[in-house]
## 1
Amino acid sequence: MNTAAPQRGFQTLFKNRNFLLLWLAQLISMTILNASNFAIIILIEEITGSTTLIGLAIIAFSIPAVIIGAPAGVFVDHRNKRRVLFYSNILRAIATFGFVISLLINRNELITVFLLTFLISSIGQFFTPAEGASIPLLVDEEELTSALSLFNITFMLSQAIGFIVLAPLILSLLPTFTIGTITIFPAEVLYALIAVLYLVSALLISLIPSKAFIERKRERDEQAGTNAIGALQNVWNEVREGWSFIRHNSQLFLAVVQLSFAGVLLLVIGELATPLVTRLFNLPASLMAIVFAPAGVGLVVGSIIMPRILQRISKERAIFIGSLVLAGTIVLLPLSYLLGHYMDKQGLNSKLIYLGAVPFFMFIAGIAIDFINIPAQTAIQESTPEWIKGRVLALQLMLYNAFSIPILLFIGGIADTFGIDKVIYLLSVTILVFGFWGRFYEHRHRGQSPKSDLLEEKARLSEPERVKS
């Protein structure tokens, strides 16, 4: 049983002005990020009709996390989080305005489109760990799980607003018009709006007082913070330091792996959504939202209830339960097809299964993913001190993206080769094995304290502060 202090609700968080400003900045930034992702795919499809080039666009947006994600985390650890958040939004706004200008000059010039996509994503690698590291600075310790749940809800809502509302509405409803000799397409209007909203996000960050981001610094961190150039020169050593910290802290290592696994799962489910509906269930693609939208609803509901659940059970048990439930609901999808196929033979309407039972299974799957995602996020925040939080969060993102890129590229081919149902069975077994592995790893390392020289060194450095206090 978890003996932590009772978690405060969302109402308390919304009364925290500084947290509210950070949350609004995240909501805007993530929404326009998802709208931009949708727009680049549609733009490449309109210009070329090439799935390969769409894949290259996805790579251009994903690979910066693998290449510079960890160094970005080092930079964040040595800089004021407020400045990183502010300037990353300003730079993304400038780059997005450049995107608009590039499209106005020659919208068929894809090299520039790919380069600017890579640049905007690269800047975002600094924003994400700075944002994650800022949350514990703006809320009390007992509010942390609720704050992470709220940010997780926002992440899901931003996907829905960006992918389903903002980008599709602008791209489909706005007309193409001409000003002088310049033809302006809806995509250009969308990217101009995205640039403006990045500036709004930067404004929200600027309204948070600098003192709210003051960390409990140690002597070595203060020296490093005043010598950022020297820190960047030793970036590889600091990345290794971050990885060593993760690897020698068994609870943190497990949480990083579990959070990355949950993220990859979301990508796999998203990748398989269309072929599952069209190939396996033989439904039109227009019904995909009806089948899979409940998963998004489940993610939101799970984010709301998780703070209360984590008051009653441990994070480790919640993750294990989530893994078991998710594996069970995933395997029910191809089994639903078999039942629907049997109903068709009996002259019954199989859509009762595909549009009734399957959406319910996806709703439960969404909640189950939160049972993995939010406890893992909370464990990472609780197990990571402020002096290295940026590196840890960036390394987690790097690990997640390193695995997600090949999955995004090859999952369709794997499904084509072995069949969509076989892939889903394999996915269910993988989730089940992963859940039991996490349970085994947690039991094996229970009660073990981190033994790395890194932690001992930091403990010595913090000793004078404890004496002073």
## 2
Amino acid sequence: MKDTEILVIGGGPAGLCAAKAASYLGASVLLCERDELPGGQLVKQTHKFFGSRMQYAGDRGIAIGSLLLEQVQKDPKIEMMPNTMVIGIYEDGLVLAESTNEEIVKINPQRIIVATGAAEKFLLFPGNDLPGIYGAGAVQTLMNVEGIVPGERVLMVGAGNIGLIVSYQLAQAGVETAAIIEAAPTIGGYLVHASKIQRIGIPIRTGYTIKEAYGNGKVEGAVICQVDKSWNLAPGTEEDVKCDTICLAVGLIPLTGLCWQAGCELAYIRELSGHVPVIDKYMQTTNPRIYTAGDVSGIEEASSAMVEGRLAGFSAALSLGYGKATAPKLRAEAIAELRELRAGPLGERIRQGIEKVEKLANRAIIEGSAKC
């Protein structure tokens, strides 16, 4: 049995920042990460970040991941367990984790910060089980971590930030992108990423989706077509695109399985991309021992995940009596930082989702008080 004051589940940007923040206030932390190298999505992000100096604006994701990991590795109050997946949170507070050598570890934490991130969404279409069809995250892992190109000619499905960024990275690796198609009438990603794509001559086709993939034992091409205002396939608009790879960048879904198991209240919030835990402004769930941070709380950029991690770390440590003099100010600064990141028209969807979650959290607090 391993005892720890705070268990952080997930070593991505949110988890690393949560561990460091909790340790900064004096708490001891155990961080479990299923992969060999912590860093989450940062280990494969070669593009430069936006935001402010606090979110490492101007630095590349891989550099930010290395910096956060170095800070955690040097901290004597933080113990890291890579190659270890948390598989259960039980009613009595016991946590089970499994290492890659199939060793089961029992953990007894006083507080838990769930920073498990998200999984890629997929699309249903004929031929979607052919070899050569990947999620965008898998393509990034192949290229930026393993140094392997997925193919020679790619059809990118999705023109959000991930689709645009991965298309540019494919071009940097010498891979041709036949086209980027997007079912929505407008590009979903930042203009700066779309402009880079257009400058190198990759066509972006809005109002199009994939109808089917075809090939003899592997992808040899795809049929794309337009969608109407009701998102139905428009007959007679089909086009054949020759490609050996199809990359799906159609969004992410929060990985909330451990929150479900731990009895946290969850709600479907469309603006946050799925079922998310009901949390208050300090990242605390309806299970008072459990906090969340990052994409598990709703899909956003890594900059927001890092700030949420700090906020959750400060909050969990404060709940154990650490940082009574400094934590309130640090939490207020983190909340203001998140508000700034979510400002403007691009953050409207996130703001709407957060407002819905906080209303549910306030209701849960009132109902809990009434029961007492």
## 3
Amino acid sequence: MTRVPYFPELALPTLAGYDSVIFAGAPEPVSFFGYQGGSSQLLREEQARLRIDETGQNPVDALTALADLLVSAHAPSRRSEGPVRARLDLLEMPTGELDPDKMCAVIAALQPDDCIVVDEGLCSTFKYNLIANTVRRHSYLTLTGGSIGQGMPCALGAALACPDRKVINIQADGSAMYTVQALWTQAHTGANVVTLICSNRKYFTIEFECRRAGYPPGPSAMDLMKIDQPNIDWASIGRGMGVPAVSVTTAEELALKLEDALKESGPYLIEIVL
């Protein structure tokens, strides 16, 4: 699995090597933001577009039919081979004060086989995207568009659909404020979700995109992007919703609490102060 990069200047060369692109259950990809003088499209004009599902058709059925067709085109010896997987290659467990890269390394090292990772960490999970190919086998769900607030309800839905699998929700703090009520429902249903709040106490994506567009935010604009006056006490919010919750500031604390959370059933919340 290689995730399409967030920035269009990286996504374009990533996808440029394909002569044709097949769509099933999804529209053509575009960038999250539009940039003056730049294109929001992530595919070149000369790349062929092929949609294999029709309106109302189950895209899984369309992809299954395509896979069967491709398999039948190969020799039996090729069909008998098992799935191709990347070699497990976890990063060394970090220590000390947390930052986004250390957070991602801890999660990658401890996530169990066959877990479901719901990623709405936004700017805090770039490192995870780079190493996701070499961690333990898992399902990966991320934003389906540029909106925010999807992570916690998506994690709840995944847990209800697959109650025998652990769900790890890597969740930006600003985005979490849009759908925080999902925590109560997780507690109400006993959903098997570990929520990891990336608490950088700002809407960093907005600040970053303003700077990329050439409009560095001034003091008044920055005041609207920060969520630190007062700080949001995520551990208290979690417990108030009926979810056991703690706050951590070091890699060692995160590793200890995440190990504990993964052993337990039901929901758990860890605020990761970055």
